[in-house]
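User: Predict the full complex structure for these chains.
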Amino acid sequence: MSIRERLSGNEAVAYAMRQINPDVFAAFPITPSTEIPQYFAQYVANGQVDTEYVTVESEHSSMSTCIGASAAGCRAVTATSSAGLAFMYEVLYVAASSRLPITLACVNRTLTGPININNDHSDSMGARDSGWIQIYAENNQEAYDNYLQAMRISETPDVRLPIMVCQDGFITSHAVENILLEEDAAVKAFVGEYHPEHALMGRDHPLAVGPYDNSPYCMEHKVQQAEAMKNAKRAILDVAADFEKTFGRKYGFFEEYRMEDAEVALVLIGSTAGTAKACIEDLRSQGIKAGLVKIRVFRPFPFEEIAAALSHVKAVAVMDKSEGYSAAGGPLFAEVRSACYDLPNPPKMIDVVYGLAGRDCAVQDVERVYRYLLKIVETGEVGPRYIHMGQRSAKEEVLGNGL
Amino acid sequence: MSYIQAKDINEKTPWQGLTPGGEIYEGGTSKLTLTGQWRVNRPAWNSALCRQCLLCAPFCPDSSIPVKDGKRLDFDLDHCKGCGICAKVCPFKAIRMEQEVHQ
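Assistant: Here is the predicted structure of the two-chain assembly.
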């Protein structure tokens, strides 16, 4: 039986961690993820878990601790945000290339600078090519459910890749929502125990992890890693299917909301999906066929599946909650637009960069994007493809001047 | 359990045949890497001048001076990188560094 509760996103993740009882938690605080190690420290102090709780001096050290622990054969976890994730940059790649299934709760916050603590996706988007699986949540329930699925995906023998379970800082991490929790025994049974094939400790055979790899071998290992990321697609769907069978909540690579007959659609990640869904209901009541694709899995990127989901749509706005400074749009836009290139009739597609550093995005903002897409459909003219929304401006911007 | 052995891997092994992340499942595999090919200078041992004091062997950073029954043998030139430390520490001038000539 599920348990009805009300928790913040950070509480939900810490609760899931307690239920899983990982071997090692490497803890270093940074807003807005600080509460996760804070709540977990209470579980440790209360004796509710027997996790080795390692307090370290930096995020570079917390990830290094996870790498050591994971190589030893432990289930290792940590949590971070923003500059903390950036400080892990070097060792994120070590974790992935050493094929260590570490679980990182990423509470998305913008990257400095200018210094700011609020939400956007620039931290995890900066790590998108580090070889980590990335799964994003719309709300607290999804943050909890994704965390319960994370280790099984990451530890799948032909995957063996670390995983980032992301949620929006403050919007999700600090807002208290209704949530369905699962019983401890059911969670433990679902997640299972971690028994890696090779480990530094507790085995009667020697092992070296992360040795120097010279050029006759290193490319082959990177190809192995790329193959493992492809394998993760199957593992993600397998685990989601078992999760649905066990707990009744359905997950995939992305959620399609009112997409069956949609003529205009948004593609976005995270908590803005709730805002978009409210907007879609308003527009649908006015006879406008609006839809939404909410990305759950960004790494591995569901390339063919996204293209199929958008194949019948006339105009799409990809909503990037991070700047790529590419002068051509954000990272989600680049990938979604590329995915649609092979479609016989690809939708018209624009990029809307929004919500940077905590800039609010309300239902009326999302509505402006849909109305703009309707204009594109009506006129057949796309106009500028790379648009910012929500900034104050001295001139009339494409999607309003934010005043 | 799969234990791919280092001796079974070489520069012709396809990616499918390598261990994940380059893991190594045994000790002493550095023997299989012939670092002697990197050498610019090679040590020459004059056994007539050598007094078997064994000072050279522990100084060798590459364990390339084999010792058997309390006596050093000739250099392991498959692994000696030609650093010259042995020649420097030898009190009896029994080791001389010469220009390496690679084929």
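The first helix of chain B runs from residue 56 to 59.
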